[in-house]
TrEMBL record:
This is Acetylornithine aminotransferase, mitochondrial. Its cofactor is pyridoxal 5'-phosphate. It comes from Australozyma saopauloensis. Its EC number is 2.6.1.11. InterPro entries: AcOrn/SuccOrn_fam, Aminotrans_3, Aminotrans_3_PPA_site, Class-III_PLP-dep_AT, PyrdxlP-dep_Trfase, PyrdxlP-dep_Trfase_major, PyrdxlP-dep_Trfase_small. GO terms for cellular component: mitochondrial matrix. Pathway: Amino-acid biosynthesis; L-arginine biosynthesis; N(2)-acetyl-L-ornithine from L-glutamate: step 4/4.
Length: 445
């Protein structure tokens, strides 16, 4: 309704005609909305003056998505290698997901955790059964449902604290890792050792130590049976630079945790649910190295906000009624979508296709690396969580901007990396189209 009014006024005066409930406030302090386009005006006059200043965004207003393509307010088409940051794993506007949403919304959307509901039960059951079938977390027993990644990590940290405190009041410390990203709420932020995110909000929760994910000795120095309750790690760091943590390191990490009775938490919010070509990134580990807790979100809802925590019976045995809770977690709408997603991303053919698509990306990235030895350091990641590491002389953000101007959406990751996290069912033709654009952008960088 608002957009329709807006588009009709192609030649917009500064004060745009709007629906009666909206009023434009002039924001002369906003200096960077220079484009005289419909988008520029919309961003400048309607979005920016009324939206908190926590994101840096280009003048791009997305209006539609289908599969691995997105469309903006100017009706330009983009190949999407971002999938909303590893979220829309089955593509935008997926027809099955849309049907599930419509049917569930007509049946029961929300009933709170005062009562049980069928989709939440089905999802919890499915996550455990399919995880074990897929060779994931061998001790997976119980699921806590919530609404986002950071909330899943908050729950995991609280559960680990509860476990630690069941042994001793002093067993409360947490070990996290350099370049990790676990979320923005106070607990998750406290284990995200990035000064840019942490410093403005200090003091954070006490007793958190940071180790080096390539040096097991750094963990040995920090871990203790008396004080440490949890270690939290992403098996493949996403935001931090698409860094695959060495499998040998993860095995040794589990040994150290077992020796010191410490809860090992794997944050698979970005790397889990089929993204590596296996249901979980940790499926690549032997069961002795499996974690006590796995957190997930992102892909689980294909765009609907949902998160979950999978825990072992050892952790469950320390939990009591009232220890944790949420209004929206396990709501029937999110849970019914999650159930469908889990079915899809655990399917053997689906996962084989993720690997085949990954090979196509890696081939194309290798060609870019070969042709641009002065600009590219190498390729990182696994499956469809891939990174192109650029030399420090090349500005990754400038490459992302150039790609966008040519019709490709990609994102950066820490350490001057171009991050590729497309839909897991991205068609070959979208891969080729997008990779041609990326190749051109790197050539021109
Ligand atoms: C590995 C990891 N953990 C946690 C989070 C936080 O998830 P959310 O943004 O849903 O709170 C993210 C988000 O990017 C993530 O990549």
């Amino acid at each position: 309704m608002l957009r329709a009014t807006f588009l009709r006024n192609k030649k917009l005066p500064i004060r745009v005609k709007l629906t009666p409930s909206l009023h434009i406030r002039h924001a002369s302090s906003i200096s960077d909305a220079s484009a005289d386009s419909v988008t520029g005006k919309y961003v400048e006059d309607i979005i920016k003056p009324y939206t908190v200043t926590t994101y840096a965004r280009p003048n791009l207003v997305l209006t539609k998505g289908k599969g691995s393509y997105m469309y903006d307010l100017e009706d330009r088409e983009y190949v999407d290698f971002t999938a909303g940051i590893a979220v829309t794993c089955l593509g935008h506007s997926n027809e099955e997901v849309t049907k599930i949403i419509a049917n569930q919304a007509l049946t029961l959307m929300h009933c709170s955790n005062l009562y049980y509901n069928l989709p939440a039960g089905d999802l919890a059951n499915k996550l455990i059964v399919k995880t074990i079938d897929a060779g994931g977390m061998a001790d997976a027993q119980r699921v806590f449902l919530c609404s986002s990644g950071t909330e899943a990590n908050e729950a995991a940290l609280k559960f680990a604290r509860k476990y630690g405190k069941s042994i001793s009041e002093e067993k409360t410390e947490i070990i996290a890792f350099q370049n990790a990203f676990h979320g923005r709420t106070m607990g998750a932020l406290s284990v995200t050792a990035n000064p840019k995110y942490q410093q403005p909000f200090a003091p954070l929760i006490p007793g958190v130590h940071t180790a080096d994910p390539s040096d097991i000795k750094s963990v040995e120095k920090l871990i203790s049976k008396e004080k440490t309750c949890a270690v939290i790690i992403e098996p493949i760091q996403g935001e931090g630079g698409v860094n695959s943590v060495d499998l040998e390191f993860l095995k040794q990490l589990k040994e150290l945790c077992a020796k010191n009775d410490v809860v090992l938490i794997f944050d698979e919010i970005q790397c889990g649910l089929g993204r590596t070509g296996q249901l979980w990134a940790h499926c690549a580990l032997p069961k002795e190295a499996h974690p006590d807790i796995v957190t997930m979100a992102k892909a689980l809802g294909n765009g609907f906000p949902i998160g979950a925590v999978m825990i072992s019976e050892k952790i469950e045995s320390k939990l009591q009624v009232g220890d944790h809770g949420t209004t929206y977690g396990g709501n029937p709408l999110g849970a019914s979508i999650g159930s469908y997603v889990v079915d899809q991303v655990s399917d053997a053919d689906f996962l084989a296709n993720v690997k085949a698509s990954s090979d196509k990306f890696v081939d194309a990235l290798s060609k870019i690396a070969e042709e641009n030895p002065d600009k590219v350091v190498g390729i990182k990641g696994r499956g469809l969580l891939l990174g192109l590491q650029l030399k420090s002389s090349v500005d990754a953000t400038a490459v992302v901007n150039k790609c966008r101007s040519y019709g490709l959406l990609v994102i950066t990751a820490g350490g001057n990396v171009i991050r590729l996290v497309p839909a897991l069912n991205i068609p070959n033709e979208a891969i080729s189209k997008g990779m041609d654009i990326l190749a051109q952008a790197i050539k021109e960088a």
